[in-house]
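Might I ask for a little of your time on a matter of protein folding? What I wish to show you is a protein chain and, alongside it, a tokenised description of its three-dimensional fold. I should value your view on which stretches of the chain appear to form regular backbone elements. You will find the record immediately after this paragraph:
***
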Amino acid sequence: MAGDEKVQAKVEQAKGKVEETAGRAVGNERLTAEGRADRAKGDARQAKEKIKDALTD
């Protein structure tokens, strides 16, 4: 299960980066903000997984 969470975190980070870049390219502030939010969500999920890994080692 932890592997799935790590993959999901990377997917969210990548999706957010693409959305943010696309939003900036076309001048769409809403898309840029959504991208930032997705990246932050992915970062938070990744941090949570790192903490869980550290506690189980």
Remarks:
- The chain is about 95% helix and 0% strand.
- The mean pLDDT is 92.
